[in-house]
């Protein structure tokens, strides 16, 4: 429903009131007409919004695919990962001697726990 229809509805309601026919029925008609106009406007807005969101999603998917498929971006990602790998390797070398004893202690703990659980379940 366009602005033209809204104006016509408003004008006809105004003429009802100015001719002295502004009764309870005219007020009800006014409220019903207003609700109908709002519902139709809301529906049109919702459809436009849904179409807009679909367009945005399609554009974002296309743009993302173009970025991911871009050889320059792929090269930058590889360089970035290699730099980070180079930064992490010395840290891993420092941590590794501490990890092995920790793993042995955890394994020993679980072995003892299994043993105790086995003893308890046999009783």
TrEMBL record:
Organism encoding this protein: Oryzias javanicus
InterPro entries in the record: ApoA-II_sf (IPR036172)
Entry's Gene Ontology cellular component terms: extracellular region
GO biological process, one term: lipoprotein metabolic process
Gene3D superfamilies found in the cross-reference section: 6.10.250.100
UniProt GO molecular function: lipid binding
SUPFAM superfamilies for the chain: Apolipoprotein A-II (SSF82936)
Protein name: Apolipoprotein A-II
